[in-house]
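ok, trying the design again with the full structure, not the truncated one.
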């Protein structure tokens, strides 16, 4: 069996897309691309500044263009893409993921996400900046995740938990299901 050329990681902010993506790309000898980091580097602004100065719609357009650029680049071995938390909200992005990637949704409990986000600092999470307390943050995370659930479900091929499984187990589960998915894609293409 072989691996898919592109593996995309989606999920709510703080689930570990960048951490898992870096480790997975290292294990597979794939290129690693983080859409938020690419946008921040290309604009010379933090995500918070982009939201503040240009607005969320402009940022969402940048996400789509960044995803297209990564998918159109030449990746000899393949690539792992850590997608920004809101990237799957766009129908165009969901279709790009479905057409070009094996897509894994990373999931995590709301209270653990709140702990991770507070540790990272609220300044890098503009959509959560107005949550004044830990309990408010947990509640807001739950509400946002509920609104995004259908979009994540539509974009993902599998889900894996980053709060219950070790990083090694997360990587093993992604690799196992990615191989099975690729094998199925190849069998379908031969029909």
């Amino acid at each position: 069996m072989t691996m898919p050329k592109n593996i995309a990681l989606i999920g709510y902010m703080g689930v570990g897309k960048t951490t898992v993506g870096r480790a997975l790309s290292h294990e597979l000898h794939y290129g690693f691309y983080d859409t938020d980091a690419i946008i921040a580097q290309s604009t010379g602004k933090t995500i918070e500044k982009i939201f503040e100065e240009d607005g969320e719609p402009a940022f969402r357009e940048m996400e789509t263009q960044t995803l297209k650029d990564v998918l159109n680049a030449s990746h000899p071995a393949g690539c792992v893409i850590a997608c920004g938390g809101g990237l799957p909200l766009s129908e165009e992005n969901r279709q790009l993921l479905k057409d070009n990637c094996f897509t894994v949704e990373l999931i995590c409990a709301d209270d653990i996400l709140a702990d991770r986000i507070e540790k990272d600092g609220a300044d890098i999470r503009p959509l959560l900046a107005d949550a004044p307390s830990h309990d408010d943050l947990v509640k807001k995370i739950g509400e946002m995740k509920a609104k995004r659930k259908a979009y994540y479900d539509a974009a993902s091929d599998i889900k894996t938990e980053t709060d219950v499984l070790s990083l090694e187990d997360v990587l093993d589960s992604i690799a196992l299901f990615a191989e099975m998915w690729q094998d199925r894609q190849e069998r379908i293409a031969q029909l």
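Keeping the full-length input from now on. The domain at 6-163 is CATH 3.40.50.300 (Rossmann fold).
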